[in-house]
Design goal:
The chain has a seven-stranded mixed sheet with strand order 7-8-6-5-9-10-11, sandwiched between helices. The protein is built from 20 helices and eleven strands. It starts with a helix and ends with a strand. It folds into three domains: 2-348, no CATH class; 371-504, no CATH class; 508-633, Rossmann fold, CATH 3.40.50.720. With 635 residues, the protein is of the alpha/beta class. It is globular and about 85 Å long.
């Protein structure tokens, strides 16, 4: 078995190597050429027939196993292999057609759905389980189609750099093959290893500078394999593995496609609301994928590829931890996943936060955006209050419905919901402008809901004639959950604005787009007001100015943070900061700056070649606050 497996893998590598070399020459004759354009990062025409080489190699290796060594594939592995070959043949045909001359996005999507349905129809054991629960055939079909289409598009979209897509697939499949070997499943490991070997021969010519690309046929075929064969051999092991399976098999491509859907959906809404029209939508191509953003930082293709490959290794290890070390691995995976999510959102989703913040601002400015919201808010709050009360009872019963008494539970839910809604009305929640709310307003509502919970506990205990700690405990839990569910949607506009500011201002790196990079001089009240102003100004302002920090005359404040911005030093530090951060100017946010300090500032600016801007609010004759801003270039 070991000798046979090694011979098969080595032979597949050699076949893939030869077929890839052949496709480099055959690609132009087949009309499979990738021509450079504004979305591409390569400068010369490159054949995109590598996917055919990988697919043909895997199919030949799989057929050899089935025909000559059937004992190697045990259980349903042979059925999985034949179902994949049939479905991938359809998908490769769609991909080759797209690679040759292009097809409409909806036609391409239809081909992906057809391939997914074909695989589901042919795979052994139709009807499945979700997290340990049996599901109907229709639900099982829907889950498989959604999962396959998602991963097919994820690998298709991430295929933008030399060696990136094939490398990510090889990393994920190699990790899962090792897991299968450790768990005594050599047949599963061999099936995964066969695809890795096929990719290995192709990667020999796909490394930077690439001589051949996968093409849509290859990238979609890899997505199908990861979503089907890899899922079948790994995803059936445990509930924990099922939960983390997407991260294990396609972490980086999935993150990229989810960001793309988020970004393009927001762009579509912005375009529709502004009446701009144009080719903006979910399927509209852009140059904002993960690899494009990293390239925009000035990194080379090779460095970006290595970073994304390293990220894939980390994500795979985190996701597969429960399979490696059991229950403790689930805890480690949850903590690591939380940390990775926070880091990723801050450093990778900046563009999405900016556009989402712009969408929120536009929604708030539209006249129709403010009408009709109150009934929806009330319905949402009623739903949250009811679910919070029910969940609190379930938690107290250790999620065992049999331990809950029906009448007292529904009585508690009704009283808590009514009391909570009355408290919200008393606090005038539906009259507040939550897009401009302050922290104290959120705290007031949270405290009010806690008091509503305590009132509920008192009413329930008086009605039952029994004073128990259990009802008070349940009321406290329900109040906390209700506060989160009610306040989070109302805080979302402010959160998005803050994240937009954080993405474009508080990260000191140089951003593309020719923005004027400035520091704010003045960490006092007026400086604080200007930083607050950043969250409310039109998003178009972000395209002209980027604030990277503050200056203040008090040297002891150096290194402190104000509204998330670092106080970088004093005016004397400007020459050093200008050279280090690539500054373009200084925004003065000090009312009544005396002439001595102004002359000193001008001298430093003249020496450093920086521009001077001033920001203030003044009163007109009608005693109306008016923003005053001016800018001048100091020679």
């Amino acid at each position: 078995m070991i000798i046979l497996s090694i011979a098969l893998l080595v032979g597949s590598y050699g076949v893939a190597l030869g077929l890839s070399r052949f496709m480099i020459a055959a690609g132009p004759r087949l009309g499979l050429m990738d021509l450079p354009d504004e979305r591409r990062v390569h400068l010369n025409a490159v054949p995109r027939a590598g996917g055919l080489a990988v697919w043909l190699t895997f199919v030949m290796g799989g057929l050899a196993l089935t025909l000559f060594f059937p004992a190697v594939l045990v259980g349903g592995q042979a059925g999985v292999l034949s179902a994949f070959i049939a479905a991938s043949a359809l998908l490769v045909a769609v991909g080759v057609t797209d690679d040759r001359g292009g097809i409409r996005p909806w036609v391409k999507l239809a081909g992906q759905v057809a391939a997914a349905v074909l695989y589901w129809w042919l795979k052994p054991g139709s009807g499945s389980s979700l997290l340990g629960y049996e599901v109907p055939l229709v639900v099982d079909l829907g889950i498989w189609v959604a999962w396959i289409v998602l991963l097919v598009n994820a690998f298709n979209l991430i295929d933008g750099l030399d060696g990136l897509c094939a490398g990510l697939a090889a990393i994920s499949l190699s990790g899962m093959a090792v897991i299968q070997m450790a768990q005594g499943q050599p047949g599963d490991a061999l099936l995964l290893g066969l695809m890795v070997a096929s990719l290995g021969g192709f990667l020999r010519y796909n490394r930077h500078p690439a001589r051949i690309f996968l093409g849509d046929a290859g990238s979609m075929m890899l997505g199908l394999f990861v979503a089907t064969a890899a899922t079948e051999v790994v995803g059936r092991k445990a509930i924990g593995a099922s939960l983390l399976l997407p991260l294990a098999v396609a972490g980086v491509p999935l993150i990229d496609v989810l960001l793309a859907v988020w970004r393009r959906s927001v762009r579509k809404l912005l375009s529709d609301w502004r009446g701009e029209g144009g080719a903006v939508g979910i399927f509209a191509p852009d140059k904002d994928h993960l690899h494009h953003r990293l390239l925009a930082r000035g990194w080379s293709q090779l460095k970006v590829t290595r970073i994304l490959h390293g990220s894939a290794v980390v994500l795979s290890l985190v996701a597969l931890a429960p399979l490696l070390i059991g229950g403790r691995g689930m805890v480690i995976a949850a903590v690591a996943g939380f940390v990775i999510a926070l880091f990723g959102l801050k450093h990778l989703a900046g563009l999405e936060f900016i556009q989402s913040g712009e969408l929120v601002q536009l929604a708030l400015k539209r006249r129709e955006g403010g009408r009709g919201l109150k009934p929806w808010y009330i319905l949402w709050d009623l739903l949250v209050l009811s679910l919070a009360a029910l969940t609190a009872n379930l938690m107290d019963a250790n999620f065992d419905p049999g331990r809950m008494e029906s009448a007292p539970t529904w009585s508690f839910i009704g009283i808590f919901t009514a009391t909570g809604l009355m408290m919200l009305l008393l606090l005038r929640v539906y009259r507040r402008m939550w897009s401009r709310a302050r922290l104290r307003e959120f705290l007031l509502v949270a405290v009010g809901l806690f008091l509503a919970g305590m009132v509920t506990a008192a009413l329930v205990q008086v009605a039952s004639g029994d004073l128990t700690w259990q009802v008070t405990r349940i009321s406290a839990m329900a109040s906390m959950m209700a506060a989160v569910g009610i306040l989070v949607p109302r805080a979302l506009p402010e959160v998005l604005r803050e994240l937009a500011v954080d993405s474009l201002h508080r990260q000191a790196r140089v951003l593309p787009g020719g923005r004027c990079r400035i520091v704010v001089y003045g960490a006092g009240e007026l400086g604080d007001l200007y930083l607050d102003h950043l969250t409310a100004i039109p998003q178009g302002h972000f395209e002209t100015v980027q604030v990277v920090g503050l200056l203040d005359d008090k040297r002891l404040l150096k290194g402190r943070l104000m509204r998330g911005f670092e106080i970088l030093g004093t005016v004397e530090d400007l020459p050093r900061l200008s050279a280090k951060l690539g500054l373009d100017g200084v925004m003065v946010a000090i009312r009544g700056l005396d002439e001595v300090k102004r002359a000193k500032l001008r001298a430093v600016l003249e020496k450093s070649g920086l521009k001077l801007f001033e920001w203030d609010f003044v009163l007109t004759g009608d005693e109306v606050p008016t923003e005053s801003a001016s800018g001048e270039e100091v020679a």
